[in-house]
Specification:
two-stranded antiparallel ribbon, Rossmann fold, binds sodium ion, xanthine phosphoribosyltransferase activity, Xanthine_PRibTrfase, binds guanosine-5',3'-tetraphosphate, eight-stranded mixed sheet, alpha/beta, globular, cytoplasm
Length: 191
């Protein structure tokens, strides 16, 4: 997605050849027109998949997933992150390990908002280790739904996320794939 690569080149800040900060248009300030375009691109990639519901995770996934949900005209639900939960039987949950915080957290979705038997599209902003996406996929499957795909805005292809998800059988669609960081600049993979 060329307009996204352009914004990353113009405004992204790579820290220690490790983390890409895109706070000026994606993770803090949000560019509404760019988000509309992102939603349209995700919808186009899954137009024949029969998607019935979108699942994302707070916080940064929500605004992205909303645009796709409007385009695809399907309901959207976001998973909540909690340090740990008292087990109740009214939520589905999954445990995710955060490499940045070096701790586990629980992600939960109320059973009311994840009916069984649906085709679900998972959406998130970044794909790095794939922990969050894998946790969401397991959660969705525990509800008796099918994960038809995982849509990501920015993939760090040199981290193991995509490989993990593909090995587990998921269709991963990333709008931009970063092959490497070199001298604190992004090297993109060819489309
Ligand atoms: P994972 O999501 O792939 O499992 O990796 P990790 O635990 O390391 O990620 C922690 C958080 O950092 C996640 O957001 C993830 O999306 C984000 N992240 C990973 N790599 C990058 C990067 O290079 N740049 C930016 N900007 N974010 C990255 P989160 O904690 O769930 O936060 P939120 O933004 O959804 O609130
Ligand atoms: Na994030
Ligand atoms: Na995220």
């Amino acid at each position: 997605m060329d307009i996204l690569k352009q914004r990353i080149n113009e405004e992204g800040i790579v820290l220690n050849n490790r983390v890409l900060k895109v706070d000026s248009f994606l993770n803090h300030q949000i560019d509404p027109k760019l988000f509309v375009a992102i939603g349209k691109e995700i919808a186009a990639r899954f137009k024949d998949a029969g998607i019935e519901r979108i699942v994302t995770i707070e916080a940064s996934g929500i605004a992205i997933a909303l645009q796709a949900a409007i385009e695809m005209d399907v309901p959207l639900v976001f998973a909540r992150k909690k340090k740990s939960i008292l087990m109740t039987d009214d939520v589905y949950h999954s445990v995710v390990y955060s490499y940045t915080k070096e701790e586990n957290y629980d992600v939960t979705i109320s059973k009311r908002f994840l009916p069984a038997g649906e085709k679900v599209l998972i959406i998130d902003d970044f794909l790095a280790s794939g922990e969050a996406a894998m946790g969401l996929a397991k959660l969705v499957e525990s509800a008796g739904d099918t994960v038809e795909g995982i849509a990501i805005v920015i993939e760090k292809s040199f981290q193991p996320g995509r490989e993990r998800l593909e090995r587990a059988g998921y269709n991963v669609q990333s709008l931009v794939r970063i092959k490497a960081f070199e001298d604190n600049h992004c090297v993109f993979m060819e489309d």
